[in-house]
Design brief:
The chain has five helices and three strands, in the order E-E-H-E-H-H-H-H. With 111 residues, the chain is mainly alpha-helical. The protein has one domain.
Length: 111
């Protein structure tokens, strides 16, 4: 059974960061919940990398890589934070329940 490890880095201002250490092959819904709450997300999952991009990924078992990404995210300006959360929000919108239901309906109708 695969297990996940999640960490929430709460900053005193607007830079909340969610860290997900789940292995690839396990698409953890907590990532989507964190994005919906306005958090930036860092993850080890290659599946998430395919969805969101490399700027939100760090290598599994790479504490230094995670530290560098956290430093970068914690140093973002408000404008850059808004841009990054916008990228993540667009990603999860494409995987929302209404979108997935519409895709399923289209598949059934065209079958």
């Amino acid at each position: 059974m695969k297990k996940s490890l999640n960490i929430l880095v709460v900053n005193t201002d607007w830079r909340d960061i969610f860290v997900n250490c789940s292995k690839s092959g396990m698409f953890d819904k907590t990532i989507f919940k964190a994005v919906a709450c306005g958090c930036l997300v860092l993850a080890t999952s290659r599946d998430f990398a395919d969805l969101a991009g490399e700027e939100f990924i760090f290598a599994d078992n790479d504490a230094e890589g995670l530290a560098k990404k956290l430093e970068g995210f914690l140093a973002t300006t408000h404008e850059e934070h808004t841009r990054l959360t916008g990228v993540l929000t667009k990603c999860i919108e494409h995987h929302s329940l209404p979108v997935l239901v519409n895709r399923l309906v289209e598949e059934i109708v065209t079958f």
